[in-house]
Write a structure and sequence with these properties.
two-stranded antiparallel sheet; globular; about 425 residues
């Protein structure tokens, strides 16, 4: 039977999680250089189209369908192209089956969008869309099935309230593989590559935090005490992570930075995601504070290394998700709705959490590598030297984010001393020529 209160909460939560992907576009867009901001944002917006359609046609069924003899590993095809999903209450709870599909679809979309941050400013837009279309089916759907669809990890008792393993570890390791396969930007390590719009980063982080209340709170699948606990924990963990991060920044450089604060908020949100409905509010504070340590250390190391994970997706989401998954096994409490964790004497739960994290790391890493190689064999993965130097906004989309004309000037001088045809002016919002 459909309950109006629960349905209302799930409608609101779904809209909030959907908003996270445009929020991610702003967050990522502010972190790159002005010449590639539109391309970076378009990768998130592209995931809304490609990821959503693939989820409707095939992904949902493989994640949440009945796989019969394959059930431990993969769902079936009975929900192919939304077949069998209607307005009656279903497996998700006392709200329409179609709404459960939509809620889960917002998770699949943002997971694919997260990966883009590792390869921005040099990966071709079409190659990225082809990759995430395949990745949603081959990688995301099976791991979602293992944890949430009745698969082998859920049978072992792995705890992942809202996606620490399914979303963040999964996307983080795929992003790391993408950065390695596509290769570093041509000027990486040779000149400073700085964010072009830090206020945009803060705005994106704010929208992500807002949407995360639906991400975690909605994962209770009810408007009840579990949703309230997840909601409160989603407030507390990022606050603790932000405080620790600022202290670490001041200790290292003498200054607390706005980009550091925004990054810390995301790390705290990622870390609390698997634990949100299983730990006490004090446990959430501890998880946020502890998770800041490895992510901060990794980002400081990465900036000095040859690894060009452009927007630190692995350090933020991969390590943040790994920290959160393991700490869930430490702080999970029976009194707060979870299986007892290490602090309540259940060391086995920590082992199960580690196994789930390692399984996602191994499968996503290997499958992502093979899919990137497959796509690369069909179409070039990265832009050519001229396009990368020009910026992918003009090269890939024929537009500029800002009306400076710099991209058009670069296009006229292609680096070979010849004048290229002047591009047609792009159209800005409101119909004025940009």
């Amino acid at each position: 039977m459909v309950e109006s209160g629960t349905t209302t909460w799930m409608l609101v939560s779904t809209a909030m999680v959907l908003l996270m992907t445009p929020g991610l576009a702003l967050f990522y867009g502010g972190l790159v250089r002005a010449k590639s901001v539109l391309n970076t944002m378009m990768m998130s917006w592209g995931a809304l189209g490609v990821g959503g359609v693939v989820w409707a046609l095939l992904g949902y069924s493989l994640a949440f369908g009945d796989g019969g003899p394959l059930q431990p590993w993969l769902g079936g095809l009975q929900h192919l192209a939304l077949r069998g999903l209607g307005l009656e209450a279903g497996a998700g709870g006392p709200f329409p089956d179609l709404l459960f599909w939509a809620f889960q679809g917002t998770f699949a979309i943002i997971t694919a969008a997260l990966i883009s941050g590792a390869a921005v400013e040099r990966m071709r837009f079409g190659a990225y869309l082809a990759f995430i279309a395949l990745w949603t089916v081959v990688v995301y759907a099976p791991i979602a099935h293992w944890v949430w669809g009745g698969g082998w990890l859920s049978r072992l008792g792995a705890l992942d309230f809202a996606g620490g393993t399914v979303v963040h570890i999964n996307a983080g390791v795929a992003a790391l593989v993408a950065a390695l396969v596509v290769g570093p930007r041509r000027d990486y390590g040779r000149q400073a590559i700085l964010p072009h719009n830090v206020p945009l980063v803060l705005l994106g982080a704010a929208l992500l935090w807002f949407g995360w209340f639906g991400f975690n709170g909605g994962s209770a699948l009810a408007a009840d005490e579990g949703a309230a606990l997840a909601f409160v924990n989603t407030m507390l963990a990022p606050m603790a992570a932000m405080l620790v991060w600022m202290l670490l920044d001041v200790r290292r450089t003498g200054k607390a930075t706005a980009v550091g604060v925004a990054t810390a908020v995301v790390v705290g949100l990622v870390a609390i995601t698997p634990a949100a409905g299983f730990v006490s509010p004090l446990g959430a504070l501890a998880i946020g504070a502890v998770a800041a340590l490895p992510s901060h250390a990794f980002l400081a190391w990465r900036a000095r290394s040859a690894l060009d994970d452009s927007l630190d997706v692995f350090g933020t989401h991969g390590l943040g998700g790994l920290s959160g998954a393991l700490l869930t096994g430490v702080f999970a409490s029976e009194a707060w709705g979870g299986t007892p964790g290490l602090l309540e004497g259940n060391v086995l739960q920590l082992g199960v959490q580690a196994l789930a994290a390692l399984a996602a790391l191994a499968y996503s890493g290997l499958a992502s590598f093979l899919l990137l190689k497959l796509v690369g064999a069909l179409v070039p993965l990265r832009a050519d030297t001229q396009a990368e130097g020009l910026g992918l906004d003009v090269a890939e989309h024929g537009e500029e984010a800002y009306t400076t004309g710099e991209g058009a000037v670069l296009l006229l001088d292609g680096g070979d001393g010849k004048m290229a045809p002047e591009p047609k002016p792009a159209r800005a919002v409101g119909g004025e020529a940009a």
